[in-house]
Amino acid sequence: MRDVAIIGIGMNKWGELWNDSLRDMYVDAAVDAIKDSGVDHIDGMYVGSMTPGLFVGQEHLGSLLADYLGIRNLPCTRVESACASGGLAIKSAYLEIASGHSDIVIAGGVEKMTDCSGDQATYALATAADQEYEVFHGATFPGLYAMMARRHMHDYGTTREQLAHVAVKNHKNGAKNPKAQYPFEVTMEGVMTSVMVADPLRILDCSPITDGAACAVLADMETAKKFCKKPLVKITGFGHATDRIAMHTRDSITRLDATAVAGERAFKMAGRKPEDIQLAEVHDCFTIAEIMVIEDLGFFEKGKGGTAAESGETHIGGRIPINTSGGLKSKGHPVGATGVAQAYEMVTQLRGDAGDRQVQGAKVGLTHNMGGSGGSTVVHIMEVV
Amino acid sequence: MFPSRIWRDSPQRYRLEAVKCSKEGHVYFPPRRVAPGTLDGSTLEPYKLPDNGTIYTYTIIEVPPSQFKDEAPYVVGIIELSDGTKIMCQITDCEPDKLEVGQAVKLEFRRIQTHGEHGVLSYGYKAVPAIPGITTV
Amino acid sequence: MVGIVGYGAKIPRHRIAVEEIAKTWGADAPSYKKGLQLTEKSVPAPDVDTITLSVEASKYAIKRANIDPVDVGCVYVGSESHPYAVKPTGTTLAEAVGAVNDCHCADYEFACKAGSEAMFVTAGLAKSGFVKYGLAVGGDTSQGAPGDALEYSAAAGAAAFIMGTNGLVAELLDEHSFMSDTPDFWRREHEHYPQHGGRFTGDPAYFRTIMGASQALLKKSGTKPEDFAYAVFHQPNGKFPMRVGKMLGFKREQIETGWLVPVLGNTYSGASPLGLTAILDVAKPGDLIFMCSYGSGAGSDAFIWKATDRLAEVQDLCPKTRPQLDEHKVYVDYGTYAKYRRKILKNK
């Protein structure tokens, strides 16, 4: 298997984008990524999108987006793993290059979530859970994570304030991100008094509904050196795992099994340990998710994740900055695009281009992209060479 | 929701019919075709879940999906039944602010969804606080 | 010998007080309370309907009967608030309790006597040997028109009985039914709420019919009111059953145990059946119980039950009627009540 690097990145500014359709956003991000990479041809493309069919009635994105990107006859595959679709697109592009079949492959992600009512969007998102044994009973996504939060509080003493610290940190970072949907800070009090969505999670504990796209151009190392003039970011490992989809069938709802296993697989492939990771973009679909993920990836002891943002350890300048981009919370969460946007931030950081979000001396980073309530997870480890 | 989807899970929703692996003793709810790790369904035998347990976790849904709009706020929880199996369902006939993890509950037959003015009614299980003499003996 | 092998009652948790309804309509609560001898009624929450109440009551009946539900040969639910206009209540009930699939199933209607009808038919089928056990349920979540007198009393509850020929907890000694075409209370198709004949619902309807069935039964069975430990009559309000009981020669003390309406309201097809379950909860072996239902339109089914030794063995096996009625109640205001009972017009 050949070595693979990310040589180009592109992303539109995320938000509620009335003027941009799904195909518009994707083309913008893809063109930016291709230009950033310097390549003159593309061999293949993978697009992550959770459910364009339910959001805008459009399937067959492989054909649509290759067409609108204007690369004739490009082999293009739409991949889906709920909110981990973007990470899955990167893994898929990686394998097509590593196998030797292709040299230059785009991994993109896109979701258009505002061309439907809030109810329809909520319905579409809920298809990531068990329809007959969770959603049927009235569970919503905030509800599923709220149940995890309550149990985490019961088992480990995690507090309501500790959840709020995650939101405050991520907004502080996102305020410095020109691509973020909500580039402004929030206060502890603001989070703790925001409207209740599913007790104990409030609206400011939850990632938003967002339109957006992000793309990355991947290439084998030889091709990369030929085209790319910027520091090369190598994907040194990835891990992909699934877990039981329905929360009640898991042995524990405070341990994200797919995250732990995907993390182990990525560390093994990269020859790395959690201590080697200097910064990470993790899937903070809800504040409690970030807390559990950083425990299950091995960055913090189980049950101590709540202290991380509270103590400053995961802030920029702390021991292991988490979500310097602002995370899903502040940057936004156009479902299928998130995993690729995490790569966008990581490459930006590892190239030293992150401006006032920059983590000094960043060389080894990790991205963590999770689907549903943890039913699937894709982790990548990236290192600047 | 189409009637066949409502109908197919009624043994589970009405009678809590699960399967139990005769080899390892693990109970699966919802039931499965094959026992995990085996590709073999022959060890899976019919098993009925008990109708009482404790609250493992819960949340109060304040922002409901459209089909539950008129019921918010309502409580959804994971119940750990007396045999160790866990299920997810609403917790009803309760004061949401007074619920506690570990509280004893009983499962009752309730209407779950009406599917609008024209749809087939969906019934199933919800948990209620276990009150001796009223909901339990 | 035929009779009740197991019984169960299910009453919802929520209540609304007469004062709360009267306040909304600017009516005089004390005169309603006095006139109806009723202070509050049960309210079904949105997830409760005739099917759900029937299932829970039936589970208790099956538990007390100590039978395998697969041996239930017929399942009948009598109600005037079946959840569907077309699709049986009984089939969902039968599936839910496991009385499937080789079972005769039907829904019954006759205003408030639909429950006692189901009891009459199942007893007959068990006696004749057509079925080993039959499940008969009387339950309702009936509605009264907003602001109408019936709104103060229309309530929710269900009583279930397993009938059979062995393991009896109460033997059916005798039965008599009486009917006439008397239009005292009716609801036309597509109408939301019923109409009624005001004072016409009294003497020519309720009283004539219950007297007709009860007097005939007392005569044909050779019994007198003083022979009975308990008597229960259809209870649309607190006054009527006490009055008809007195007219027949029963004393207040005999009627009180089954007299649930003052704090339950009128559970329609569940009214006298729930009075019967409340009596069975406390009756002693050998006690004679007189029961007469009433359904507008009109008809009455009268029964004489005799408690057996086995009754004492099963009373405590499941939640009883009176605690469900008196304890852990949750009061709602009129707005919540109107929302629960879907009385509020919303955009479709």
Please explain how this structure is put together:
The complex is a heterotrimer of chains A (385), B (137) and C (348). Chain A has 14 helices and eleven strands. The longest helix of chain A is centred in the N-terminal third of the chain and has 16 residues. In chain A, a hairpin with a 4-residue loop joins strand 10 and strand 11. In chain A, helix 1 crosses helix 3, helix 4 crosses helix 14 and helix 7 packs across helix 12. In chain A, the strands form two sheets. Chain A has a nine-stranded mixed beta sheet with strand order 3-2-4-7-1-8-11-10-9, with helices on both faces. By secondary structure, chain A is of the alpha/beta class. Chain B is mostly beta strands. Chain B has a domain of 87 residues: OB fold (Dihydrolipoamide Acetyltransferase, E2P), CATH 2.40.50.840. Chain B is 9% helix and 39% strand. Chain B is built from two helices and eight strands, in the order H-H-E-E-E-E-E-E-E-E. Chain B has a five-stranded antiparallel beta sheet. A three-stranded antiparallel beta sheet of chain B has the order 2-1-3. Chain C has two domains: 189 residues, Peroxisomal Thiolase, Chain A, domain 1 (3-Layer(aba) Sandwich); 142 residues, 3-Layer(aba) Sandwich (Peroxisomal Thiolase, Chain A, domain 1), CATH 3.40.47.10. The radius of gyration of chain C is 19 Å and the shape is globular. Chain C is of the alpha/beta class. The model of chain C has no long low-confidence stretch (mean pLDDT 97). Chains in contact: A-B, B-C. At the A-B interface, helix 5, helix 6 and strand 5 of A face strand 4, strand 5 and strand 6 of B.
Features:
heterotrimer, A: 385 residues, alpha/beta, Peroxisomal Thiolase, Chain A, domain 1, 9-stranded mixed β-sheet, two-stranded antiparallel ribbon, 14 helices, 38% helix, B: 137 residues, mainly beta, OB fold (Dihydrolipoamide Acetyltransferase, E2P), 5-stranded antiparallel β-sheet, 3-stranded antiparallel β-sheet, 2 helices, globular
